[in-house]
Each structure stands twice: as structure tokens, then as C-alpha cells.
Design goal:
mainly alpha, 98 residues
Length: 98
Amino acid sequence: MLSGSPLAPYTRGMDNLTLPPELERFAAEAIAAGRYRDVSDLVAAGVSLLRRAEAARAEFIASLEEAEAESEREGWHTIDDVHAEMTALIDEARRAKG
């Protein structure tokens, strides 16, 4: 965490941000191009993006856990089972066409 706690307020310690040269160049170019007002605006955008990525990651993990729980409750199919069922459905559709 930047300030030690997810709920901690902004601290002046973040003002002494050091970036690798390639990121510093990118940041300077983005600010010069007018995409961000200043370094604070740029860092806020980056942290916001990270927050969204972490939320998406947590949502994905939750969906995997739910799928796993569902498979434990209701059973699961092998790829061979799915392939056989799809082949049967296709064959049935072809017969229905005539």
C-alpha cells in the first residue's frame, strides 16, 4: 500500500515518487500531451486503473469459486461428454432438416 493502510489518507510521502526512467518518460510525455494535468493526476489515474483491475480479478476468482462449488453440487462433464452431446445434437438437427 502506498500509505500503509487501504483506508489511510493521502500523505505527503507520496510526493517523493520515483519512477524507472522509461515510466518517467512516458509520464512526462502524457502530461506534455495534455492527457493529464500533472503527476498527481497521472498517478491517480494509474491507481484507479489498478483498483479496477483488482476488482475484476476478485470478481473472476469469485466466479471460478462459484463454478467449482456448482460442479461439486451438481456434478461436472468431461470434454468427451460434451463432445458426444454436441455431436448428437448436430446429428439430430441434420436429420430434422431432411
